[in-house]
Amino acid sequence: MNECRETLFGFCGNRLRYILNGQVSDDVIYMRRLNLQKTENMAADMRLPTFRKQVSLSPSLSALDGKDLVVPGDVITSDTGFMRGHGTYMDEEKLTASVAGEVERVNKLVCVRPLRTRFNGEVGDVVVGRITEVQQKRWKVETNSRLDSVLLLSSVNLPGGELRRRSAEDELTMRDYLQEGDLISAEVQSVFSDGALSLHTRSLKYGKLGQGVLVQLSPSLIKRQKTHFHNLPCGASIILGNNGFVWLYPAPGQQDEEAGGYYTSLEPVSLSDREVISRLRNCLLALGAHKVLLYDTSVLYCYESSLPHQIKDILKPEVMEEIVMVTRQKLVEQEG
Amino acid sequence: MATVQVSEAEKVYILHGVRDDLRVDGRGCEDYRHMEIETDMVSNTDGSAKVTLGHTDVLVGVKAEMGKPRPMVPDEGYLEFFVDCSANATPEFEGRGGDELGMELSNTLYKVFNNRYSVDLKSLCISRGEHCWVLYVDVLLLQCDGNLFDAISVAIKAALFNTKIPKVHISEDEEGGKEIELSDDPYDCMRLNVENVPCIVTLCKVGHRHVVDATLQEKACSVASLIISVTHKGTVTCVRKVGGGSLDPESIFEMTEVKSGACALFHTICPHPGKLISIECSVVSNFNLIRTSKLVTQLHLLCRGNSLSV
């Protein structure tokens, strides 16, 4: 019998909401109120998992963009006239993809660019990294790439901004400047032959990072822009590292000229700044979960559309969806 | 536990945030992350549950087997716990790396359930002194993002609730030996009463305050944590302190008087696989563990087949 009986008890002052997905037959939902005394704001939210929505590529979209998405094992072409590039291999005369991504054809070269991959740095990329080791005359930095990146002692600015030869004493005091666990913002100077990146913090805008929040996302979601340092109008500043590490920090004060990170202020950050930073962090996670390209405008739109919700609610699946939908609409309107 | 590195400045930021009751993700000190629970997904177990708390993923399977009861308590069955930290969670758990953490977690679970009231062990007895049900509870850690104890305890409670133990008929045959028959009907089974199964709450001391449901970054800033397992009536079954830091006795009392507990209601999920019911309901009750305790977390699944009375 297709009958569904639901009973909802109204609780004074509580929010009680339920969402039914799909058909409900023979289901009865029984709820019992247990040990309810005073009602304050919600502390724990338990729920049952929901089906992930299936997103189908509309035929018009794929025809316009001409994107050719492949998964590992898909045959790209059987024509032997092509040269095979990254992400492909020859399987019995057929060119097959070895990663999941889109096919790029440049004249006779066929390669597959993966959708989700470790950070492959190029010269000039801005990265945010964490020091993992202190070695002789260099630091090893973790930047979400295949190998740890290298920050040479000769590539950092010495205290006081002097330009001089690095002495043995500088080598011994390396740990005073950057320790294991410290965060830095740097630029890629060059790429070694094995693929490791060589970083430098030679400008005053790079250097050790102070108080703030690090958000780790996929590198493919960060849009390449002219500048990756933004002071958002909502009251916080953001560094969108090309390697997927995004750093949020309170907007620097007026008297500040970038000291290059030698002086990290350990003053408590005000509550309003903290709220902005927490909200931005949750918005970034929401955008990352829905694979939206990240740049200052999209982050800002997401922040604005999340304002009606409480900060801790942003990470709930339905709220995330709603916010991202509004952001996408705004972005489309802005373009069109 | 899997660890992350945090810089000094990040630690200071987190400490000040906890002091102001606004954590990095906007939660208060006593708020849990979003939790999702699913039961009955592993078909070759007698009961299973999967809990996702933030990015922590825990899968629990319960298998009921017949065994000999312990000599000291011939009319009771017992539970065996095993926690497996899978290398999927972090590379640190590869090979034997996860064994230490797994041992620590299983020992804590033994302590938590080591009393007569959590699970009615007498109902697991088949014939006194000879046969009893042994429940093997296997926990698999799929992803580790802090707060393992809480997630595991919730998953165990859900899995025990979901456990269906076949009914046993004992008949005497001609020579006086006992013959045990398990009923073949999948619906002819016994369910456990999980009302008194405790749930674990981990309180981490960060700075001068304590936080519930700490993430890995907050764990890196805390020196000590207190693990308390509480039943819904407020009975404390186990208290443990982990970590190298020291806890002031007064702060322990303060921690156990957590003001806003969480009282979560659970609703039935229909055994039909195609239907999903997502219900969000949370209610908080003011409770005080030491005096008249209320609940910390309660999971009370009421699933009785296809029809329920209200």
UniProtKB/TrEMBL annotation, chain A:
InterPro entries: Exosome_cplx_N_dom, Exosome_RNA_bind1/RRP40/RRP4, KH_dom_type_1, KH_dom_type_1_sf, NA-bd_OB-fold, S1_RRP4. The keyword Nucleus applies. One of its GO terms (biological process) is poly(A)-dependent snoRNA 3'-end processing. Residues 69-106 form the Exosome complex component N-terminal domain. Residues 118-190 form the RRP4 S1 domain. One of its GO terms (molecular function) is RNA binding. Keywords: Cytoplasm, Exosome, Nucleus, Phosphoprotein, RNA-binding, rRNA processing. One of its GO terms (cellular component) is nucleolus. Residues 212-250 form the K Homology domain. Pfam families: ECR1_N, KH_6, S1_RRP4. It is found in: Cytoplasm; Nucleus, Nucleolus. SUPFAM superfamilies: Eukaryotic type KH-domain (KH-domain type I), Nucleic acid-binding proteins, Ribosomal L27 protein-like. Belongs to the RRP4 family. Component of the RNA exosome core complex (Exo-9), composed of EXOSC1, EXOSC2, EXOSC3, EXOSC4, EXOSC5, EXOSC6, EXOSC7, EXOSC8 and EXOSC9; within the complex interacts with EXOSC4 and EXOSC7. The catalytically inactive RNA exosome core complex (Exo-9) associates with the catalytic subunit EXOSC10/RRP6. Exo-9 may associate with DIS3 to form the nucleolar exosome complex, or DIS3L to form the cytoplasmic exosome complex. Exo-9 is formed by a hexameric base ring consisting of the heterodimers EXOSC4-EXOSC9, EXOSC5-EXOSC8 and EXOSC6-EXOSC7, and a cap ring consisting of EXOSC1, EXOSC2 and EXOSC3. This is Exosome complex component RRP4. It comes from Oncorhynchus kisutch (Coho salmon).
TrEMBL record, chain B:
GO terms for cellular component: cytoplasmic exosome (RNase complex); nuclear exosome (RNase complex); nucleolus. The keyword Acetylation applies. Gene3D superfamilies: GHMP Kinase, N-terminal domain. Keywords: Acetylation, Cytoplasm, Exosome, Nucleus, RNA-binding, rRNA processing. This is Exosome component 7. It comes from the Eukaryota. Residues 32-166, 196-257 form the Exoribonuclease phosphorolytic domain. GO terms for molecular function: mRNA 3'-UTR AU-rich region binding.
